[in-house]
User: Which sequence fits this backbone?
C-alpha cells in the first residue's frame, strides 16, 4: 500500500467534482480578487510602486477598503507584488583585489617638508547632487598647511 505522501491524486466522485465545478465563486474569493486588482492598480501608479504592505494598507483604507494589514501583506505576496526600492548607493573607493602595482607610501606618516611643493597630500570624496555625483578633491601642501 502506498504512503499518503506518495499519492499524487485524490479520488473524488463524479458528482462531487461536477458540484465543485458548478459552485459559484465565494464572496471571500470575489473580495480577494477585487483587492488584488486594486493592489495592482496601486502598484502600477508611478508614484506608489515603491509602497510596501504597510503603506499599501493605508492607501487601501483611504480608498474605502476594510482590510487587515497582514491580509494585504499576504495578498501582495501571493500576487507577486513587491515594493520597488533600490539599494542605497555605496561608494567603493578601495579595490585591493587586483594584480596591478600600488603607489608607494612616500610620506610614511611624516608630514613635515623642508619647503613648499615638496609634499602634497590629497583626499577624494563623492557628493550626490540632483545632476549626479560630483567629485571633490582636496590637496594640501604639507609645508604650508593650507589647501590649494
Assistant:
Amino acid at each position: 500500500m502506498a504512503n499518503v505522501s506518495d499519492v499524487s491524486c485524490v479520488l473524488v466522485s463524479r458528482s462531487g467534482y461536477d458540484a465543485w465545478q458548478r459552485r459559484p465563486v465565494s464572496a471571500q474569493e470575489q473580495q480577494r480578487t477585487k483587492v488584488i486588482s486594486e493592489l495592482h492598480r496601486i502598484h502600477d501608479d508611478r508614484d506608489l510602486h515603491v509602497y510596501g504592505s504597510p503603506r499599501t494598507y493605508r492607501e487601501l483604507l483611504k480608498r474605502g477598503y476594510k482590510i487587515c494589514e497582514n491580509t494585504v501583506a499576504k495578498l501582495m505576496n501571493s500576487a507577486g507584488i513587491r515594493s520597488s526600492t533600490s539599494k542605497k548607493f555605496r561608494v567603493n573607493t578601495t579595490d585591493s583585489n587586483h594584480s596591478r602595482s600600488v603607489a608607494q607610501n612616500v610620506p610614511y606618516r611624516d608630514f613635515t617638508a623642508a619647503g613648499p611643493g615638496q609634499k602634497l597630500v590629497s583626499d577624494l570624496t563623492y557628493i550626490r547632487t540632483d545632476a549626479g555625483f560630483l567629485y571633490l578633491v582636496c590637496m594640501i601642501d604639507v609645508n604650508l598647511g593650507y589647501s590649494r
In short: Helices lie at 14-22, 27-44, 53-62, 69-79. The chain has four helices and three strands.
